[in-house]
Amino acid sequence: MAKGKPKNAFYAQSGGVTAVINASACGVLETARKYPKKIGKVYAGRNGIIGALTEDLIDTSKESVAAIKALRHTPSGAFGSCRYKLKSLEQNKREYDRLIEVFKAHDIGYFFYNGGGDSADTCLKVSQLSETLGYPIQAIHVPKTVDNDLPITDNCPGFGSVAKYIAVSTREASFDVASMAKTSTKVFILEVMGRHAGWIAAAGGLASTQDTEIPIVILFPEVSFDKAKFLATVDANVKKYGYCTVVVSEGVKSPDGKFLADQGLKDAFGHAQLGGVAPVVASIIKEGLGLKYHWGVADYLQRAARHIASKSDVDQAYAMGKAAVELAVKGKNSVMPTVERVSSKPYKWKVGVAPLNKVANVEKMMPKDFITDDGFGITAKCRTYLEPLIQGEDYPPYKNGMPQYVRLKNVAAKKKLGEFKL
Amino acid sequence: MAKGKPKNAFYAQSGGVTAVINASACGVLETARKYPKKIGKVYAGRNGIIGALTEDLIDTSKESVAAIKALRHTPSGAFGSCRYKLKSLEQNKREYDRLIEVFKAHDIGYFFYNGGGDSADTCLKVSQLSETLGYPIQAIHVPKTVDNDLPITDNCPGFGSVAKYIAVSTREASFDVASMAKTSTKVFILEVMGRHAGWIAAAGGLASTQDTEIPIVILFPEVSFDKAKFLATVDANVKKYGYCTVVVSEGVKSPDGKFLADQGLKDAFGHAQLGGVAPVVASIIKEGLGLKYHWGVADYLQRAARHIASKSDVDQAYAMGKAAVELAVKGKNSVMPTVERVSSKPYKWKVGVAPLNKVANVEKMMPKDFITDDGFGITAKCRTYLEPLIQGEDYPPYKNGMPQYVRLKNVAAKKKLGEFKL
């Protein structure tokens, strides 16, 4: 692939989007434009792999240099994302045949897929098309996930910015509740993402530092919820500091293994209500301690908060996109660029590379020694790991008080094939 | 008061805190230090008026110039706030006698109270102590409230920064849901503050502009919730744009006059659950349209978010504190400095002044012509009013990726009196 006539490339975004996935897109597109002898057009899939299957390809050559550059400071997925996992070749050969048909029709020789663990699996399957179905393609995965649960890479682009948002918000809300505690709210509860791993919840612990101590109780999905111990800890904090902040992962579970959020809430008409875990924890505090509380649920706000993105994270997201193209140009297939930590203090990192079959479908959990013995906090080791990831600010440009996020033209490439039913 | 030996001053923060109430404190303290011939020490009440009643006074002369300066970029109430309303003189003369006792003991001749409508009432009562109980004092109210519901002043310090946070967050989350909508979430619901007035919800409308159109449905407390019309509007947006964002005020009410949030939720054990309105709206959408949704509750995050404060708001908060001291030095009593709008485009404003008896206990609602006829959006007139208030960014300093918010020493002045039971 690296020699001869240039081949076109396919790029797509997959799974939950982040504040910096477009920075990776920016890295891919800007770098691809530097190798015109090897890479022709970059077609972006509209809504991830679905764009490839339905031949809904966006011709990124129609976008201006300025628009592509602005992707670096624009949150969300500029080409649309999807939650769609390719089945195995045995289960659905029709989809693979279709991919090859579309790739052939548009002379696509490079496949860049920007996503998390599930998407790495899709990318791995595509990378095997040369072997399995005799179609030559180089598939490179670009890591992305707020959950920080990909293996091998030190951390995942997307996570650092969520971590910064949660750390900053936790500090700010804690200052607020501390001001109110004398006659009003004494406990603030913030619900954060992370259904399986507690990385994002752990970031709440960064709100408290040596020069700004804050009593924070973290509820990790890795630690079974112990109601009595939790209430005793909150109570002790309120007695000592006058207030307490609770950061609770959406994935925290009761001893019976069920999500704490799943308390079978019903409204006045008996309809089931899908609540968050924050109000559940609030009720537990109200009932157990009788303290006045407030609760918040960050939800999409946390992963879309480009306005307070981590500079480390933006830089790494861009670097992963850039590295993916450089690996492709070097003839690599079935790999994923990674972040390799060189040192924590001062923070230094470089780009590494991992084989995709070691990445796909592997989930990296929080190490046990990142959580304090009482199960409610982060250790010094965890702090050393996390702190570099939220370093630096990378503010978007503003106009009339609002961040200027780009919307691409997203011009569709002309279809050459018949319709395909998903 | 303006002549002769300098008198000491009392300053306190009251009610819900904001991202910029400390900027007003900064304005008061820095300005007071410029008039040593007229103002001696500034004592801050620990936890608002309670600090005055219990003689828990903070000696702000013990704080460094740098610490006072840092208040300008620090959210929350540095001296602690309170929710405590003085009763009328007839109902509780004991409290007024105590205030005079404390003021006399500490030679206090100026009273600066930083709060909203209820606090203006407290300040008004104190301003009348000269007449009612023969104690000479000048009481000046410093406006503060995220609810933006004080009369006469064009807007209230605290509101602009919440408005900016909500506008920015709504834009970011809308970009997110737009990316996910093809195969996943189609509606995002954001719950915001504002139990009586829809000012904060209105700010969600600023997320959509001519160059960045976003389908947003706003549920105002001023507009009775019409379920069928709401569902039809969300449905039409999803059909047209692929997704829809809903910004819902915590104070939105059903046609029967009850809060929509108060749906009598019960958990599996039959305990009442205090939920937010966002999950209620989510359930209505799920049941009525069967669409996948996400919801967030900003809660304290919105009013504590100093990291994305509006520069207009910070400047005005500081100016109100400064003006309060200048009014005091000029011998004024029972007044409140105000923001007077000179023009919207370009935005120009100046400091005005209002008599306290026209401010206390008056609530400014959204004008009817600020809400579109369908009840779900903001008019051009509303936009012209709101846009200047979110103008400009005023970032705090960062260290290791975290905003550096100051914590004062808050050294207590020596008590001279006996205990007082609240």
TrEMBL record, chains A, B:
The keyword Kinase applies. Non-allosteric. The keyword S-adenosyl-L-methionine does not apply. GO terms for molecular function: 6-phosphofructokinase activity; diphosphate-fructose-6-phosphate 1-phosphotransferase activity; metal ion binding. It comes from Sulfuricaulis limicola. HAMAP family: Phosphofructokinase_II_B2. Its EC number is 2.7.1.90. Substrate binds at residues 145-147, 193-195, 250, 300-303. This is Pyrophosphate--fructose 6-phosphate 1-phosphotransferase. Its main location: cytoplasm. Signal peptide: none annotated. Residues 12-327 form the Phosphofructokinase domain. PANTHER family: ATP-DEPENDENT 6-PHOSPHOFRUCTOKINASE 1. The active site is at 147 (proton acceptor). Pathway: Carbohydrate degradation; glycolysis; D-glyceraldehyde 3-phosphate and glycerone phosphate from D-glucose: step 3/4. Belongs to the phosphofructokinase type A (PFKA) family. PPi-dependent PFK group II subfamily. Clade 'B2' sub-subfamily. GO terms for biological process: fructose 6-phosphate metabolic process. It catalyses: beta-D-fructose 6-phosphate + diphosphate = beta-D-fructose 1,6-bisphosphate + phosphate + H(+). It holds the Pfam family PFK. Catalyzes the phosphorylation of D-fructose 6-phosphate, the first committing step of glycolysis. Uses inorganic phosphate (PPi) as phosphoryl donor instead of ATP like common ATP-dependent phosphofructokinases (ATP-PFKs), which renders the reaction reversible, and can thus function both in glycolysis and gluconeogenesis. Consistently, PPi-PFK can replace the enzymes of both the forward (ATP-PFK) and reverse (fructose-bisphosphatase (FBPase)) reactions. The record marks 118 as: Important for catalytic activity and substrate specificity. InterPro entries: ATP_PFK, PFKA, Phosphofructokinase_dom, PKF_sf, PPi-PFK. The lineage of its organism: Bacteria, Pseudomonadati, Pseudomonadota, Gammaproteobacteria, Acidiferrobacterales. It is found in: Cytoplasm. Its cofactor is Mg(2+). The record marks 144 as: Important for catalytic activity.
